[in-house]
Write a structure and sequence with these properties.
Rossmann fold; six-stranded mixed sheet; three-stranded antiparallel sheet
Length: 574
């Protein structure tokens, strides 16, 4: 009942007028077969008595019911379409709202991703189908109840048997629904893989990369394999439902057959009118039964609706990485970033990606993080930004542990937002509009003003070829990401190789600009170009997830045996 109430609540919020109008048309249309049977019975009696004038009005009444049926059909189609469009939007918005509030750490959790993926599917498909089926079921039930009530006036036991025959169908649909949801959950992993493989082939950049590697055929084979494995899981569940349906169908047919025999033996069936009512009623009941069987899909969909309801209520499966208890807060001033014995390990992996990190970065300080590939630099940046939570130890900004909202991140693999330049930049303040002067100032700082001025519509140029927009180079996309950083009001800037698409001179210039613009902020920047790191206030050298060296760059270079000094010498010699 909770799941049915959940859908009714959404329908009511979506569009009350369309819902009420749909219900009226459905109920009126469901009553028409009953009215038609009454008119047919009276018409047959009058015909037997030879009274033609009264019969003419009955014939006109029958014609009117046909006209009303057509009118109700078109009205129902109109209001249901309005309702379905708004319900689809509502479902998508509800799931998207949950996704927009999700802590970034959950995005690395397989269970959560499967729940999110399934909920998006249900909101877009099963929710619509459930609402549509439920409304058609009301129509069938109204027809079935009124027509069976008419037949019960001839044989109460026969009418009861007809209703009893519906029970196995609904029971079977419910069992099939539970099995289908279990199959879909088992196939969710294959769904995720298939969607990812399809995305790789459809998206422009990944398709081009695969083409260069001549790997598109391999990815297509992976896509076909994932879809085939999912079909096998679902097909097994469907076969079990098919085999289970045989005894339930026999019970239903037996009940209807017994009801028919009782009806034919009842006293009222010895007249022409009674026979006409019985013949018409059987047709209406058969049609209603077929509808009930079709929309018995409601029983199959209920478990899926329950999944969606629990997901939106936050009752998702327990994450793979359990939340740990936070140690007591330490004292800290303003927006200094403090690591106190922080270790971090990815879910399902052995060992730590970062181990026993203790570090304090003060306000106004720019810290360059360097090290070989796989040393933990990106993981460190994600911890600061609040995307990951420490497995051990404590990480705080200004003494507090919540970090989202206090940090601005330019990741190594930044998102290329396919919208106008203006809208892309305004994401820096959750869509709040900036003045043109503010936008151009940020672009100047990021070194992107020159190319934006050359775009067809400047700040209003649509980006992304797939949207009929303009294509940018990797370096130009990166400059937009940096411009967003300069527009934020965050107190900590985190940049993970923000200049990988820029030349060495541009990178060094940008790091100098970052240092000048920090003011009362704290900054972290990951770079592989150690000459650029010389412009930072402090350098932290990571190796195998541990800090092996830290200090002002000039001081570290004075130690010829130090790790930073040896890395610098190697790069210069190269």
């Amino acid at each position: 009942m909770k799941d049915i109430g959940f859908v009714l609540g959404i329908l009511w919020k979506t569009n009350r007028a369309s819902l009420l109008a749909s219900l009226v048309t459905i109920v009126v249309d469901g009553l028409l077969p009953f009215v038609q049977l009454i008119l047919v019975a009276q018409l047959v009696e009058l015909a037997a008595d030879g009274i033609r004038e009264s019969g003419l009005w009955l014939v006109l009444g029958l014609c009117a019911t046909l006209g009303i049926h057509q009118l109700m059909y078109h009205l129902r189609w109109y209001f249901l379409n309005r309702l379905q469009q708004r319900l689809s939007d509502m479902g998508r918005l509800m799931v998207s709202e949950v996704a927009s509030k999700t802590p970034p750490r959950n995005l690395d959790d397989r269970a959560f991703n499967e729940d999110l993926f399934r909920s998006a599917q249900i909101a877009h498909g099963a929710l619509l189908e459930f609402a549509n089926s439920a409304l058609y079921l009301i129509n069938a039930v109204v027809t079935l109840v009124t027509v069976v009530a008419l037949l019960a006036s001839y044989s109460p036991l026969g009418g009861a048997l007809i209703l009893l025959g519906m029970v196995p169908t609904l029971f079977l649909a419910r069992r099939a629904g539970v099995r289908e949801v279990a199959a879909q959950r088992a196939g969710a992993t294959y769904d995720l893989e298939a969607n990812y493989m399809a995305q790789l082939l459809v998206e422009r950049d990944s398709n081009a990369d695969l083409a260069v590697m001549e790997a598109r055929r391999y990815v297509l084979q992976r896509l076909e394999s994932a879809m085939q494995r999912r079909r096998m899981v679902v097909d097994r569940a469907n076969l079990r439902t098919l085999l289970e349906s045989a005894p339930f169908t026999i019970i239903m047919i037996g009940c209807l057959f017994a009801a028919a025999l009782l009806m034919l033996e009842s006293p009222g069936m010895d007249s022409a009118a009674g026979i006409a009512v019985f013949a018409g009623a059987i047709g209406s009941v058969a049609s209603a039964v077929a509808t009930v069987q079709t929309v018995g899909r409601i029983g199959e969909l209920l478990p899926s609706i329950g999944e969606l309801r629990m997901f939106l209520a936050g009752q998702v499966r327990e994450p793979l990485a359990q939340r740990r208890k936070e140690p007591a807060a330490s004292s800290g001033g303003h927006f200094a970033v403090e690591f106190d014995g922080v270790s971090f390990g990815y879910p399902g992996s052995r060992g730590y990606a970062l181990s026993s990190i203790s570090l304090v970065a003060k306000e106004g300080e720019l810290v360059a993080v360097v090290g070989s590939n796989g040393s933990g630099k990106t993981t460190l940046m994600k911890l600061i930004a609040g995307i990951h939570e420490p497995t051990e130890g404590r990480l705080s900004i200004g003494g507090g542990t919540p970090r989202l909202g206090l940090t601005a991140l330019v990741p190594q693999e930044f998102t290329r937002f396919r919208m106008s330049v203006r809208d892309s930049l305004c994401l820096a303040a959750q869509g709040r509009p900036f003045s043109d002067e503010e936008l151009w100032t940020a672009l100047e700082k990021a070194g992107g003003a020159v190319f934006v001025r050359k775009l067809p519509d400047g700040l209003d140029t649509q980006l992304g070829l797939e949207f009929g927009g303009h294509s940018l180079s990797g370096g130009q996309w990166q400059k937009l990401a940096l411009a967003r950083l300069f527009l934020t009001s965050s107190n900590v800037w985190v940049l993970d190789e923000p200049t990988s698409a820029l030349d060495a001179e541009s990178e060094a210039s940008l790091i100098v600009t970052l240092k000048q613009r920090l003011e009362n902020r704290t900054g972290f920047v990951v770079t592989h170009r150690l000459l650029a790191a010389k412009h930072a206030d402090r350098v932290v050298v990571l190796e195998q997830g541990e800090i092996v060296e830290e200090g002002p760059p000039r001081q570290l270079l004075e130690s010829p045996t130090g790790r930073f000094s040896s890395l610098m010498s190697f790069q210069i010699d190269s």
